Give the backbone structure.
Amino acid sequence: MCRIAQAYKTGRGRFMMRARVATENLTKEKQAIIITEIPYQVNKSKLIERIAELANEKIVDEISDVRDESDRDGMRIVIELKRGSQPEIVLNQLYKHTQLQESFSMIFLAVLNGRPVELGLDQAIRAFIDHRVDVVQRRTVFLLRKAREREHILEGYKIALDNLDTVIRIIRGSGSRAEARENLYAWGKGTDIVINLDRERLPSEERGLSLRQVDAILELQLYRLTQLSVDEILKELGEIREKIAEYESILASEKKLRAVIVKELEEVRAKYGDARRTQIVDESAELQLEDLIADEQVAVTVSHQGYLKRTPISIYRQQRRGGTGRMGMKTREEDFVAQLIVDSTHAYLLCFTNTGRVYWVKVYEVPDVGAAGKGKSMQSLLNLQAGENVRAILPVRDLEEEGKFIFFLTRQGTVKKTPLKDFSNVMARGIIAIGIDKEDELVAARITDGSQIVFLATHLGMAIRFDEADVRSMGRPAYGVRGIELAKNDYVVGVAITPKEHEPGEYRILAITENGFGKRTDVVEYRLQTRGGKGVKNMAVTERIGKVSSIQLVDDTSELMVISQWGKIIRIDTKTVRAAGRATQGVRLLQLDAEDKVAAAVIIPPEEAIKEDDQGTLLQ
């Protein structure tokens, strides 16, 4: 629609024409696209050949058959689809590869004041109205002149009829037509004349006959001299005088003149107007890759070393409990799956970096390399700047959703909450998500509803738990506020977000130290405090167990993966880590060699997470 509006505004433009299509159910599982009209100047036979070519070459793989069922009743092209195909996706592919969608160039060229010009619709309408005013004025002047001429003749007839006997005597007494013309004109002017009939002199009388009237009288046929014809002449004279009055009133009033124009246009509309055959709809944007991608649920796996891949949910068949599962992602020995995201192919992945910038990538842009493929590196998917690395990936379907926030945490204990809709301005080069000082960096980002409970933990074994409502909403460039007051040489290692209302023991904090020790503690053991405080002891940090390297929010179903700097990996069922109080040292999770340290610890998605029940509902 906007292109059409622009074309009518400037007088030049281009708009899209699309075929008229509909979908029909051929069977319970098969559908067909029905084409009943095609764009202007498109050849139907060549169009069908092109569609068949696309199907044969597997460019549009969902087409099983195409045929022409057109008859005298109209056009009907049937494109049968394979079972399970989505007509909207196939149609978008056909729009892209065939003449079902064609652009049409428009130039509104007109001759104005003797020269060709391009006119916008407003200018054209104004020029047309001015032209119609001129035409109606000139036409009315012409009709008025003709009416006055006719009135003049009829007035001459009336004079002749009023003096019929005299006129007949003059004509009969004249020796020729020319003499009769002269005698009638002289009599009409009031001159005494002598006719040949016994040299009779007719008295003069002012009549006011012109030569045109005299000629008309001489041409008057005898049958017009009957009483009926006389009445007709008088009636016509009255009608012509009414027309003269109408024409004069039109020329004297611009309002009446424009009313004539409106009336004539309405008559044209009534005579030639019919329902619009084409349909003008809001213009869709240029076809993007997203228009050709089916909107389906997929699993995106993110490895610890930053490799991403997507896999359709459908390849993960449902298995019985205790089954062997199937390979979800092939990784190197020192790598492992760190995050599993299940969402639509049309959803966004918000990727937040250590420098506080955010980048977007659509789920369908993540490569589908098969169930056992390694995937693609984040560095090749995102336009990262020098020194940047991704710290958090959050899936979002609707960037404009109200009541959702992104909660940020930095290494130096700064926290910030920003509405999700502030990140709807998608840009390939990324934008600032949070202002961060040079000596600071982003640690984590989470999606919240603005009213949850925040838990922060530090490297030296401290922790604070406060209400998210204590952090006011801020814009993207803001630096945030203090979340926890840190001791010298301390820094924040992680964040956990929990609901305000939950059962005791439902959520626990699993703290992991750099020497491979860990412990589980119920979150309720950490009393709520005011944001910005020093917090309470989270773990008894000693030289033997080392300082805290990370924390994870776990429940009774969570599994933990721990990897060391030298590539040592262990996978642990978190239930096997005994629950302990806040100030305890915990138990050994991983036996490390001398000088080796824990590099990372993450909660991994269970292998049974990606499966469907009998109704196709995702189970996690």
